[in-house]
Each structure stands twice: as C-alpha cells, then as structure tokens.
Inverse folding.
C-alpha cells in the first residue's frame, strides 16, 4: 500500500527515537555514528530510523567522500504543521 506524504511524516514522528534524532539535527548536520551516541541501540537500528525519516522527507543524507552527513529538511514539518493548524480552531 502506497502512503501519502503526510502519513509518512506523521508515521516517522510517531517514534520517540526519531523525534530525538530530528531534535539533534535541528542543531546542525551529523553522522550516523554521532546520531547513535546517545542511544543504547546498534548503528543498524539508527540506520533504519534514518531510512524512515528520509522516506518521509524529514532528513537528507549527503555524501562527502566517506562521510555521509545527515541534515534536517524542515519543509515536511511545515506541511504537517499546516495540516494541524487547520484543526486547531475546532
């Protein structure tokens, strides 16, 4: 089943680890290793979280030689906030 972008965004935001990763990326780019440091999980688990965030458009993963920096992409967050704002007045 194909999901619409808003479903992917809210699905990605549903997990506290992914929200913590986004909070860290709001401070600037980071590597997978750097993002994994505060968590008691494997690099593979963090990579899976990053794939969910990337699929939702919430992060972008670059390539600079061997370094693969991740950075926050705020546009999808604005889309989710706009959707929520529509219901805020109800």
């Amino acid at each position: 089943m194909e999901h619409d972008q808003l479903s992917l965004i809210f699905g990605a935001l549903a997990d506290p680890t992914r929200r913590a990763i986004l909070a860290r990326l709001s401070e600037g780019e980071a590597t997978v290793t750097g993002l994994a440091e505060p968590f008691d999980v494997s690099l593979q688990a963090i990579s899976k979280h990053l794939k969910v965030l990337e699929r939702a458009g919430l992060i972008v993963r670059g390539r600079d030689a061997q370094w693969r920096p991740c950075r926050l992409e705020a546009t999808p967050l604005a889309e989710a906030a706009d959707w929520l704002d529509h219901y805020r007045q109800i």
